[in-house]
Amino acid sequence: MAVITVPLRCLLLSWVLIMSFQESAAQKIIHFRDDETTVPIGRSVYYYKDERATLSLDDVRHEPIASQFQRSEASWPHFGTTQAAVWLRFTVVNHTQSGCVLEIAEPGLQHIQLFAPTAAGNYEGHTFGLLHPMSSRPIKNNYFLYRLVAAGDSTPHTFYLRVKTDVNLDVPMTIGSFKGVLDAQRARNLSFGLLCGLLIIMTFSCLVTYFIVRERSYLYYALHLFSVLLFIDILYIGAGFEYLWPETPWINEYPMLFGGISSALILLFSSCFLQSGIYAPRLHQGLPIFYILLALSGVLFFAGAPLVGNAVMQIVTLLATPYLLTMGVTAYRKQHPQAAVFIAALSFFMAAVLIFLLYVNGVLPAGFYTRNSFMIGAVGQSILLAFGLAGKVDLLRQQKEQAQAEAMAVTLRQNAELERLVAERTQELISQNEEIAAQNEEISSQLEELTTQQEQIEVQNLDLQRSNEALRVARQTVEKQHHQLQRHADDLEKQISARTEELVVSNAELLDQNKQLEQFAFIVAHNLRSPVARLLGLTNLAKLIDRHSNEVEIILQKVAEAGKDLDTVIHDLSNILEVRNGKDKQFETVSLTLRLASACMALKEEIDASQARITQDFSAADALYTISPYIESILYNLISNAIKYRHPDRTPVISVRTAVVDGVVQLMVKDNGLGLDIQRHGAKLFHLYQRFHRDGEGRGIGLYLVKTQAEAIGAHISMQSKPQEGSEFTMVFDKVPTPPTQEPRQAVPTLQGAGTMPRAKLA
Predict the structure, then answer these.
(1) How far is 277 from 279, CA to CA, in rounded Å?
(2) Do 100 and 35 lie in a common domain?
(3) For residue 32, what is the enclosing H or E element?
(4) DSSP assignments along 28-96, one per residue
(5) What is the DSSP string of 716-729?
(6) pLDDT tens-digit readout, 518-538
(7) pLDDT tens digits for 611-622?
């Protein structure tokens, strides 16, 4: 069975290769023979639709895709609105002495990739399109031009095009000499220029008319024409992109958005022009639905769904055009003067839009008139509506003259009525003046009586003022005495509060000292008892042995060691008591750099032996107002501990730095030593004679002395540590006393924290 299968597979493979060769051999070749003309090549182009838009050039050049290319049946390849990427393949032979140039006369194509063969047999890619800068085009032109074959090169050249766009995908392709292509473009651009020039003239005339008559319909129509002009230019002409915004391609990203704006403006124009609220009130109420749908299509464009937005806009256009036509017919039946012109213009535009949509969706074939039907419809509509707008100007003029005549008649009637009213009012005023004269005489007599009463009141007021002044003086005296009593009471209350706070603080300090004394007494008794007990035991042992034996020297050596331990304990306790009693407790400005150098000098042998590396960073605060021996002792003990309890597998690295947080100085000492378990040993961390590493050589007094000295200089210390990673000690100088004022400020600049508690001072 296997023997039969192998020949069958070989035959099948040979058949596939022969069919592929025949397919490639059937590729129609485009022969360019006349350099005076341009040749449409649509029917000689082969295409393949990449529905997922994921294929590369290598994919389409080889099987199975290469054999799936289909020959275009239209001189103007048309693929409608699609998200697929269309691959085009064509082969050109140049028989002329001029270069062969490809023209794609569709400025609205967003992404184009042209792959041209090279002399080495490979392909070279060129990317350009509506959404790429004008500088990316091989030839700067509003259309897409590319030099395919050089002059005199008669060998076949196969080219590949990859085209993708979100709007209507047409690929009108022609080849010719560079001169022939430009000559054909001039004729085409001339016709487009005439149409666009007409739109521009209509736009400016409507704007001028609006500023003259202040009629909103002219403004809406001018903006409508401008948006139509942008829509047409981006999709069909490309002149604006070539000359106005060549390096700003994002403006070309929303051509259909300008179409939607144009539709919204034509709805506003129609409503205002036809006065739909008066002539077609029911249809007028349905216009907001179209505004909402147009806004929805715009949102879809910006949300990355251009095909759905385009479909919604086409539906709105198909529904709104007959809707507006019905509105025009309704207004015409109610004797609207310009409704007939509106109906004619909209009918013409509706027919053009219908042709354009049928062409876009593949119902009608591609051609100059079908492709440009929207532009032709817009221009024709503009011309017809121009007559309607001109008639509306005449109507406005007639209405203005009629209104002026009516206003003149009303003015004459009002003047006659005013003259009659003035005569009647004059007679009334004469009689009223006589009454006023009589009333004035009566008022004069009343004024004399009031003057007499006023004089009496003034005398009474003087008496009242004197009484009020006496009362005011008495009130001020009472208030002054009250304020004095209040201040005295406040002072007493403040003194009592201050004294109470002092007593509370003193009691807390006494309780803390009593607790520490109890711990100290217990620890002292324990640590003194051990060497004393050893001395007593050795003394008793000496009584029991022969004085001339060798054991006497051993006992004496042990006695010396016990005595040395007792002396060490007494010396440690003496240092602690000196710190607690505040002996030599004199604050001064201390340089951390100098104190660190002094501590390192004292530890030079240990540092050299351990090869420890010590770094410092006092850029935040180098000078502190503190006690110099204490700060040096703290640095000495922390660095000594870091060296003693270093990790055996790495070189000790000790970092000493300062920071200022909220105006308070912090001193940090960090190492990479053995570390310890904070959760396990945190409660005993700074207690006397506490050791946390069995192999260490310390006595368990260093951290206790550091904590005691830190409290003595107005700071508190904390520790962060991880086993086998290292430790970091942080001293916060938040209770340092204020430096004396006589010291020069430039020598001891300070940082004061918020609140009343003095903070660490920086020199």
Answers:
(1) 6
(2) yes
(3) strand 29-32
(4) PEEEE--TTS-EE-GGG-EEEEETTS---HHHHHSTTTGGG-EE--SSS-EEEE-SSEEEEEEEEEE-S
(5) EEEEEEETTTEEEE
(6) 556 655 655 566 677 667 777
(7) 999 999 999 999
Nearest-10 crossing angle of helices 287-302, 255-274: 170
439: tokens are 């009333």
Strands 653-661 vs 664-671: parallel, antiparallel or unpaired: antiparallel
Among 631, 635, 652, 634, residue whose Cα is nearest residue 643: 652
**At residue 672, does pLDDT exceed 60?**
yes
Beta bridge partners of 70: 47
Confidence of residue 584 (pLDDT cuts 50, 70, 90): low
SS3 of 333, please? helix
User: Which of the listed residues 368, 385, 402 is the one where a domain comes to its end?
Assistant: 385
In this structure, is residue 415 part of a structural domain?
no
Single-letter amino acid, residue 529: R
Any idea which residue has 């351990």 for tokens?
A: 610
Do 380 and 348 form a contact (C-beta atoms < 8 A)? yes
Closest CA to 718 of 710, 625, 726: 710
* Domain count along the chain: 4
Burial class (CB in 10 A: 0-12, 13-18, 19+), 170: buried
Claim to verify: residue 215 and residue 146 sit in the same structural domain: no
Q: What pLDDT is recorded for position 689?
A: 65
Q: What's the rounded mean pLDDT across residues 27-39?
A: 84
In a domain, 436, yes or no: no
* H helix or E strand, kind and range, residue 50: strand 46-50
Give the pLDDT score at 399: 60
Task: Provide the pLDDT for residue 395.
Answer: 60
3-class secondary-structure state, position 152: coil
Residue where the block lists tokens 């310390």: 698
- Examine the domain organization and report whether 549 and 649 are in the same domain: no
Residue with tokens 């020039």: 197
Q: Are strands 29-32 and 85-94 parallel, antiparallel or unpaired?
A: parallel
Nearest to 345 by CA among 377, 310, 320: 377
Domain presence at residue 452 = no
Q: What single DSSP character describes residue 27?
A: P
Any domain includes 224: yes
Mean pLDDT computed over every residue of the chain? 79
Q: How many CA atoms lie within 13 A of 525 on its CB side?
A: 6
Residues 345, 265: one domain?
yes
Question: Do 369 and 278 share a domain, yes or no?
Answer: yes
Q: 185-194, 415-424, 524-533 — which is least confidently predicted? A: 524-533
Same-domain pairing of 331 and 278:
yes
Within 8 A by CB and 6+ apart from 314, the residues are 357, 360
Neighbouring residues of 359: CB distance < 8 A, sequence distance ≥ 6: 78, 365, 366, 370, 371, 373
Q: Please give the Cα distance from 395 to 209 (Å, whole number).
A: 14
Parent domain of 36: 21-181
Among the candidates 136, 154, 181, a domain finishes at 181
Domain at 641, CATH number: 3.30.565.10
Angle at 422 between CA 420 and CA 423, to 5 degrees: 65
Residue 239 confidence (pLDDT):
76
Residues 6+ apart with CB under 8 A from 674: 645, 646, 647, 693, 723, 724
Closest CA to 30 of 100, 88, 91, 116: 91
Q: CATH no. for residue 536?
A: 1.10.287.130
Q: Is 117 exposed, middle or buried (0-12, 13-18, 19+ CB in 10 A)?
A: middle
Cα 293 to Cα 381: distance, rounded to the nearest angstrom: 23
Report which of 254, 280, 281, 276 is spatially closest to residue 266, judged by C-alpha positions. 276
Is the previous residue joined to 133 through a cis bond, with omega within 30 degrees of 0?
A: no
Judgement on whether residues 36 and 142 belong to the same structural domain of the protein: yes
User: From residue 199, how far is each of 324, 377, 497 by CA, in Å?
Assistant: 22, 12, 89
Within this chain, do residues 641 and 527 fall inside the same structural domain, yes or no? no
Ramachandran assignment for 304, one of left (phi > 0), alpha (psi -120 to 50 degrees), beta (any other): left
Q: Which long-range contacts (CB under 8 A, 24 or more apart) does 22-26 make?
A: 23/66, 23/67, 24/66
